[in-house]
Each structure stands twice: as C-alpha cells, then as structure tokens.
Amino acid sequence: QHYTLLYTTSVRMKSCLIHPTVAYLREELIAGRTTSRALVEQALARIADPLGEGPRAYMKVYADLARAEADASDALRAAGVVRSPVEGLPVSVKDLFDVGGDVTLAGSKALASEPPATRDAPAVARLRAAGAVILGRTSMVEFAFGGIGTNPHFGTPANPHDRGTGRIPGGSSSGAAVAVADGLCVMGLGSDTRGSVRIPAALCGVTGFKPTQSRVPREGAFPLSYTLDSVGPLARSVSCCAVFDAILAADGQPADARAPEPAALPSLRLLAPRCFALDDLDPPV
C-alpha cells in the first residue's frame, strides 16, 4: 500500500495527498507528475502556516538552500541522473546533528556560544549524497534527555492527534515525529537512546526505527549515552524507514537502497504483557 493511515474513507484521499510514502513519491517523480521543487514548496508552505506546528516542530528552516537543492535534483533527474530512491525528497534533521556552518544546539540555549560545525555529520552527509533535500533542523528535548517531548526554551510541538488538549508529542525526537505526521517532511532524522525515536513515533502515529547502535555513524551527533545512542529515521511506513535506513547505513550504493521483501512468518507468536505496565493505560489503549 502507498499510504499508512488510519482515516475514514471520506477523508482518506485528502490525507493521502498530504502523507504519501517514499514509494508513491518516487513513482510520481519518475512519471513527471511532480518535481522536487514542488514537494519542497509544499513542505515549506506547511511549515510556515501560522495555524500549524511548523514554528515549534522546526528550530531552523533552510528555505533558500532547500529550493536550490531541489532545483539541482530536478536538473539531474532531467539529465537522467537519479542518485537514489529518495532523490529530491524533503527531509528534516534533529537539532543534535551537525550541519556544516550551524551551531548544534541540541535543543539547549546553553550551547548558543559554541562554534559552528565545520562539516555535516556522516548521517546528514549520506542523505545529501543520496539526493535528499534538507529542509531544516527539528526541535527536541533539551540534550535529548527525556521521552515526553517538551522544551522550555524553543517550544513544544503539539501532538497531531489532539491539538485541542495539547497532548505531548513524545521525545526526545519530538519535532521529527510531528513534522512527519503533519507532512512537513517525508522523513525526520532522529536519534534513539532509550526510546527517543520510538516513543514520539508511537505517540504521533508514524513509524520510527532504532537500528543496531553501530549501524549508522554517530559522529557529529551530540551524545547522550556513548553505549546506547543510535541514529534512525522516522517516516510514514516501515518500508519508508527501511529505504532511509539503507542509505544512512551505506548498505551498498544509494541507488540500490530499497525495502526488503516481507518475510514469511507462518509460526509468528506475539507476547502480550499482563502486568503493571498496563495499569495506568486508558481503556481504549
């Protein structure tokens, strides 16, 4: 399926146009029904919407650079050059990753006087090399220390499924999850120590993947735990995360990145806990 959404039939088409998967967007780009520049402009418009969560989901937006990178991607595609399945797709980067020329704040004002990064973190560099367009830096829990998703310095993006109440987005990759859920990017680059990709993905209704710790280089990422930190994507589906994970881990050439075929699991069994872990959950959960 092209979309991983839980919506009623009456609004499904509108929602699908906002939240397409990597596979669907790739087909649209190949067919010439859209361009990287168009996808970037759509995302930038949603980020700038004063009624949306863009100002809280993003700490910094590279609007001009993103447009330039999108135009370059479209020019390469027109010349027959497609670097990977994510060529021309708009993505975001959690604020703890180095981006050349920027100060890495890690969600804190305490680092504002630090010197700017001299180069992109390897994970960011691999995304660029694959043709992904970096839209900006997403908000996070200060120093990635917490799973709720709040930030007293730069604001907390509201959970997309209950904005009226103002429920938490989960953290620490809070901005990444909200950005993906709201169609402000196709993938949000995050980090996970004890749930910082998985918790906000679960709370915001998207997919998050925490790979083996050494699979994606952690250099150029502000550390929380040298033994537990890992780098992973948040996106619309498992297949989307698999494609980006292959690029982030440099599994072969970027052009060969793809989601693996579903495994046959005829004897799969699931374990459901019946203990204190369920005591405080709401009945619907």
Biggest sheet statistics: 6 strands, mixed
Note poorly predicted spans.
Answer: 1-16
Number of E-state strands: 6
What distance lies between the first and last C-alpha atoms, to the nearest angstrom?
25 Å
Query: Counting H and I runs of at least 4 residues, what is the number of helices?
Result: 9
In spatial order, strands of the major sheet run 1-3-2-4-6-5
Structural class, from helix and strand content? Answer: alpha/beta
Helix content: 25-40%
Percent of residues in beta strands?
A: 5-15%
Radius of gyration: 18 Å
Order of helices and strands: HHHHEHEHEHEHEEH
Tell me, briefly, the overall form: globular
Oligomer: single chain
What integer is the average pLDDT?
92
Looking at this protein, list some descriptive labels.
six-stranded mixed sheet, alpha/beta, disordered N terminus, 31% helix, 6 strands, globular, 285 residues
Please, could you describe this protein's structure?
The chain is an alpha/beta fold and 285 residues long. 31% of the residues lie in helices and 10% in strands. It has a six-stranded mixed sheet, sandwiched between helices. Strand 2, helix 6 and strand 3 form a beta-alpha-beta unit. Helix 3 runs antiparallel to helix 5 (63-78). Mean pLDDT is 92; it is low at 1-16.
